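Researcher: I'd like a structural prediction for the single chain below. Treat it as a standalone chain; there are no partners to consider.
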Amino acid sequence: MGTGTGGGQGQAPQRRPPPCRRGGARQRIVEGAVGMVCLALQRLDEEGVVELAEERKAAMVSNLLMVLCSEQATQQVVNTGSLWQ
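Model: Treating it as a single chain, here is the predicted structure.
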């Protein structure tokens, strides 16, 4: 008869897993993300899609890891300026 708000009638509170279990899952997520980033860099290099300076590779790695490991939704950004600014 409740609306789901107030009193928690008929609903068990959602609990987060204990830190030790979250840590294991987080480690697997990061390991998978690092593997994807490595494969992306390798494929870009092998196929000659783009040549990136080391600082651009570092920025790409940082951005990819942020997207792949984030617990929150990410938003796309369209860069309308120069990448070199």
